[in-house]
Amino acid sequence: MAAKDRPFVIALEEHYWDAEVAKTFESAEARKPALRQRLDDLGALRLREMDEAGIDVQVISHGAPSTQRIDAASAVPLARRANDRLHEAVRAHPDRFAGFAALPTADPKAAADELERTVARLGFKGAMVHGPTNGVFFDDKRFWPIFERAQALDVPLYIHPSSPVPAVVEAYYRDYLKEFPQLLTAAWGYTVETATHGIRMILSGAFDKYPRLKIILGHLGESLPFSAWRINMALSRGDKPSTFRDTFNEHFWITTSGNFSTPALMCCIMEMGVDRILFSVDYPFVPNPPGTQWMADLPLGLEDRTKILSGNTKRLLRM
Ligand code: MN
After folding, report:
1. Sign of CA dihedral 167, 173, 177, 183
2. Please, which of 45, 141, 241, 281 could form a disulfide with 291 given CB 3.0 to 4.6 Å?
3. pTM of this prediction?
């Protein structure tokens, strides 16, 4: 619960696993009992660990790869069942939990309909998509009906990492995976994959077609705020300056999930402005207390700290 002497805290890259969805993918995480226990919990344990760290609300989403690697025929009813179950958990604790939908992206029209159903009928705050859908990046035009619907509903789409595509794993990471399996995931593979996803979204022209489309990236923007100037410079052609950096700063919001670096945050604030930055943890892959403690210790005034901890999210998600 919010103490009187601190800002309200909302975290929005906070995961769970739906038992039926989790059966569809392999994950090393499934073999870690303490982690699995937390992924399976949408009740007392999660709430206690939120309380211990001073987190008032979690916007809960499925963990990677969610429903992005399931064929269309299976994914459509499965995402619907999983979203209904998440809705029940949110309804049990409406002052503590909110939801991001899982979308059956293998069937884009059905995914757009499911986004609308979950937002309009279940009160979800948007949706989270985990990496490419069966190998196809989200910027592909087949997915644009989802963008159109997100814009119409005025909800953001959160592009979350998943394991890199097999050709990239082979060329970039295989030599070191035995000793350092995390190289493929949070150490570096996720960052490259998801930053590439963000860049491709901008290059696709989707934001020209959908000028009010809103995208969230985690992990302090997957390194894009650091790189935006250079990308923009390199993409400029002769006397035709690139609009990459402007598009990024207009359409993207970023969260602090799993990246509690003060120098990296300062870079993000300087590049994007403090209004674009949203506190998140990446629970339970990352524990809550280091996140809230980091925020408390930041060399920021109360006004900016409050924006990051909940003010920006309240505005973006209309909470
Ligand atoms: Mn995450």
Report:
1. negative
2. 281
3. 0.97
Rg (CA), the chain: 19
DSSP 170: I
Q: State in Å: Cα 2 to ligand 1 middle.
A: 24
Report H helices in the chain: 19-22, 33-40, 44-53, 72-92, 108-120, 144-153, 166-168, 174-177, 189-203, 206-209, 224-235, 244-251, 262-272, 288-297, 302-306, 312-317
CA of 161 to the centre of ligand 1 (A): 7
CA pair distance 218, 229, nearest whole angstrom: 19
154 among known catalytic residues: no
Q: In total, how many domains does the chain have?
A: 1
| Residue 41 identity | D
Cα-to-centroid distance, 128 and ligand 1 (Å): 10
Mind listing the pLDDT tens digit for each residue in 98-120? 999 999 999 999 999 999 999 99
pLDDT at 200: 98
Question: Of the residues 18, 107, 113, 282, which is catalytic?
Answer: 282
What pLDDT is stored for residue 40 in this prediction?
Answer: 97
DSSP state of 223: G
- Give the CATH number for residue 118: 3.20.20.140
What pLDDT was estimated at residue 255? 99
CA dist., res. 74 & res. 70, Å (int): 7
Q: Are 279 and 10 in contact (CB under 8 A)?
A: yes
* 298-316: pLDDT as tens digits: 999 999 999 999 999 999 9
